[in-house]
Design a protein that fits this description.
single chain, about 425 residues, alpha/beta, Rossmann fold, four-stranded parallel beta sheet, 13 helices
Length: about 425
């Protein structure tokens, strides 16, 4: 070979290598509903994080691109969406804004494809149980929201400290939607509310998510003789909320109401949402923000002018979680070695402070760490603190309440409260 030909070949190789490097990219897939506030919160949080990462040089010298797959909050469509991201788009990482039932649908596909995946909305404890039982095939999976067992634990504290001690409530009737989420929360609350908070569960009423007339259900709830209603609603929650107000049901109603987690709740209920209180992951509506979280919201509102006007908690989870996933990829040398990436992701830990105190923490429980209150492990679940003062992490959840004038704030725990819990004006004093 002549020197000329060798020089040409070397130059060609360099050019090809440079072109390949220029074309190299990290592809992120979003899976969730593109027409829901929940799904859009996750998608937009991911979009902002990716834009900021790319502006800072990308990851491992590569730019990040984002593709999406719509689940329509349907299990079958969710499975198809995951398959599309894995097989057609060949994504490196997936960020999910899926509801519980949809995540349960595509989880076997994740175990099969072994694509690093972050769930930002689903809180189903059964998925964390799968991580405990099968750590190898579940290694790519992380849930950066406190699981519903932690949610229920905080609610039990709210039940004991506020509902019973302050309000004098002794018994409850549970109105729960017929979903995996509804079943999980109902089970946890039922098992703990009576023995721990000292509140008797009079009856459990399960309803279909397509229910449009709740008057017979509310009548049955009143007939139970319970002091208050605990609702579990993640789908079409505006309907049960507005009917509760319009019917002036003479019982306080608290629980888990996903519609009430967004600033659009008041408009969606036609102003008929006062008195509703709900558990919420943090940050919630009415929750004071640390400076870093406020900067994210400011960026979000400057970029988007359609609902949700403020991202739901999972939008924050997507924003910080995607950045952590990419930092883990830098540490692990990419996403190809799933176990290496998983180990690096386990070590991600971000503490956000407000007024010099821990306010929010984005980190994960280790496989062998035992949470002292529940006495169990939560591998790959968001780190939370169940005992005040909250020094190790933020509380698993907070309780927020919408007042009759449309104001919303945190009512529990006291360290994060911005207003006091109250019953609606039409509910007779106990």
């Amino acid at each position: 070979m002549s020197h000329k030909r060798f020089a040409f070949s070397a130059a060609l190789a360099v050019a090809v290598a440079m072109a390949a490097a220029a074309d190299a990219e990290i592809k992120v897939g979003f899976i969730g509903s593109l027409s829901s506030d929940t799904g859009l919160s996750t998608l937009r949080g991911a979009e902002i994080a990716i834009k900021e990462l790319n502006a800072a040089g990308g990851v491992m010298g590569q730019q990040i691109t984002l593709v999406s797959a719509d689940t329509g909050e349907d299990v079958t469509e969710g499975i198809k969406a995951y398959e599309y991201l894995a097989e057609t788009e060949e994504v490196d990482f997936i960020v999910s804004g899926s509801i519980d039932d949809v995540s349960l649908g595509w989880l076997p596909r994740m175990q099969e494809y072994q694509i690093p995946t972050l769930d930002t909305w689903t809180s189903y404890i059964g998925i964390i149980d799968m991580v405990v039982e099968d750590p190898e095939t579940m290694a790519p999976y992380f849930m950066n929201i406190a699981s519903d067992e932690a949610l229920a634990t905080l609610y039990i504290n709210f039940g004991a400290d506020v509902l019973k001690a302050q309000m004098g409530f002794e018994s409850v009737v549970i109105l729960a939607e017929d979903t995996a989420f509804g079943g999980a929360i109902t089970g946890l609350v039922t098992e703990a509310l009576a023995p721990v908070a000292g509140i008797e569960v009079k009856e459990i009423i399960t309803y279909d998510i397509g229910t449009v007339d709740f008057s017979p259900i509310f009548s049955k709830a009143q007939a139970s003789g319970a002091d208050f209603i605990y609702q579990v609603s993640s789908v079409n929650s505006q309907v049960i909320s507005s009917q509760y107000v319009k019917l002036q049901v003479p019982m306080a109603m608290t629980g888990v109401n996903v519609a009430a987690l967004g600033m659009e709740y008041w408009e969606d209920t036609g102003g008929a949402g006062g008195g509703i209180s709900t558990l919420s992951p943090v940050p919630s509506v009415g929750f004071e923000l640390d400076p870093a979280s406020q900067t994210f919201v400011d960026t979000y509102q400057a970029k988007y002018d359609s609902r949700p006007v403020v991202p739901h908690f999972n939008g924050f989870n997507a924003y910080w979680g995607l950045k952590q996933a990419m930092a883990a990829a830098e540490e692990a040398g990419g996403f190809d070695d799933v176990m290496a990436w998983s180990k690096a992701m386990e070590g991600q830990d971000l503490v956000l402070e407000k007024d010099g105190k821990l306010w929010l923490r984005y980190g994960f429980w280790g496989a062998d760490e035992v949470e002292e209150v529940t006495g169990r492990t939560y591998p790959h679940n968001a780190r939370f603190d169940l005992t005040a003062p909250y020094e190790d992490a933020q509380p698993s959840m907070v309780v927020i309440q919408w007042q009759e004038d449309g104001k919303v704030g945190v009512v529990y725990p006291p360290e994060y409260a911005t207003m006091e819990f109250s019953v609606p004006s039409w509910v007779p004093a106990k």
